[in-house]
Amino acid sequence: MAYRSKDEDTKKEVKREKKCRICIKDDTVDYKDVQSLTRFMNDRGKILPRRVTGLCAKHQKLASQAIKTARQMSLLANVDENIR
Predict the structure, then answer these.
(1) Is residue 63 a contact partner of residue 53, using CB atoms and an 8 Å limit?
(2) Which long-range contacts (CB under 8 A, 24 or more apart) does 19-24 make?
(3) Is 43 within 8 Å of 80 (Cβ atoms)?
(4) Which residues in 47-84 are b (16+ Cβ under 10 Å) and which e?
(5) For 21-73, which CATH superfamily applies?
């Protein structure tokens, strides 16, 4: 029976520091810019979480509020048309 050493069992994970796209570019989130808002939504129209979008908490909140405002003004659809 062969035994494994602890070095084989543990793999070193390199943690990459995530940077907010909007903070780096010094950009703003606007409800009228539908093209940029669709980057923060999945194909069904749901708002993606921070761990997926890579935004900081401040800009994730602004992005979600902008998406909700655009939905109310009918600039964005609430549900994708292909689902219905």
Answers:
(1) yes
(2) 19/54, 20/54, 20/55, 20/56, 20/59, 21/54, 21/55, 22/55, 22/56, 22/59, 22/63, 23/56, 23/59
(3) yes
(4) bbebeebebbeebbebbbebbeebbeeeebeeeeeeee
(5) Ribosomal protein S18 (4.10.640.10)
Write phi, then psi, for 56 (nearest 5 degrees): -75, 170
pLDDT > 70? residue 7: no
Q: What is the DSSP letter of 40?
A: G
Count other Cβ atoms within 10 Å, centred on residue 37: 22
**Other Cβ atoms within 10 Å of 41 Cβ, number:** 18
Which three-class secondary structure state does DSSP give residue 47?
strand
State pLDDT tens for residues 44-73.
899 999 999 999 999 999 999 999 999 999
Which residue, among 31, 20, 41, has the nearest Cα to 65 in the 3D structure? 31
